[in-house]
Amino acid sequence: RVFSHNNPSGTVYYGKTPDLGQKVTAETGWNVDGEGFVHVIELTGLEPFTEYYYQVGDESRRYETICTAKTAPEKGTDFRLIAFSDVHDNDEKIWQNSAPIMLGVDPDMWITIGDLVNKGDMRTWNSAFFIPGESMLTAKTLTSVIGNHETMDKSDENLLRLFFCPISWIYRYR
Predict the structure, then answer these.
(1) How many CB atoms lie within 10 A of CB 5?
(2) Does residue 2 contact residue 53 with C-beta atoms inside 8 Å?
(3) pLDDT tens digits, the chain, 174 residues: what are they?
(4) Which is it for strands 2-4 and 36-39: parallel, antiparallel or unpaired?
(5) Which residues pair with 39 in a beta bridge?
(6) Which among 19, 51, 60, 110 would be 20 to 30 A from 152, CA to CA?
(7) Pairing relation of β-strands 141-145 and 109-113?
(8) How far is CA 92 from CA 106, 126, 128, in A?
(9) DSSP 39
């Protein structure tokens, strides 16, 4: 996912070194009120279990941070995975207390097992998840599973707008 504040197009610049060198642009996205545009950009031709550097932005500007992500390993390859859940609204500073520990064991990737906010229709995603989780989100590959708090009262719309889920999964869920 790529966020851009005022531009319906989004770009991912990426490569195997911090020099990047490749880019993919999505010409369209959707606006999430109060957050900006969200874009789904698929990178193809990546090598398995390889660390890539990336930077997001649009065709006119890039955000300062160069992040890293590792692609999934091939079947049968050992890897280190961290599972993390129940951050809710981060009132207990779970992110700030846990991220240094999680990064300290140098996982290859991590998974959130739901309940990232107290209630999915609340507008706390930036303050409860993206901002305090930045050190993990910019350093390690994330995948997520939807939890019961994100879907409380059928209010999963914000989660599904902010996290890409394969379309077949969405239809099975609903």
Answers:
(1) 9
(2) no
(3) 445 456 778 899 999 999 999 999 988 887 777 767 778 888 999 999 999 999 988 777 777 789 999 999 999 999 999 998 888 888 888 888 999 999 999 999 988 888 877 777 666 677 777 888 888 888 888 887 777 877 776 655 666 666 665 554 444 444
(4) antiparallel
(5) 2
(6) 110
(7) parallel
(8) 24, 16, 10
(9) E
For residue 88 the two structure tokens come to: 């809710």
| Strand arrangement of the beta sheet that strand 109-113 belongs to | 81-84, 109-113, 141-145
CB-based burial label for 147 (10 Å; 0-12, 13-18, 19+): buried
- In the numeric block, which tokens belong to residue 59? 């065709």
Q: What would the two tokens of residue 109 be?
A: 């990737």
Q: Measure the CA–CA gap between 169 and 99, rounded to whole angstroms.
A: 29
107 token code pair: 């996982």
Q: Which two tokens stand for residue 110?
A: 């991590």
What token pair was written down for 73?
A: 């390993």
Write the secondary structure of 83-142 as one string of H (helix), E (strand) and C (coil).
EECCCCCCCCCHHHHHHHHHHHCCCCEEEEECCCCCCCCCCCHHHHHHCCCHHHHCCCEE
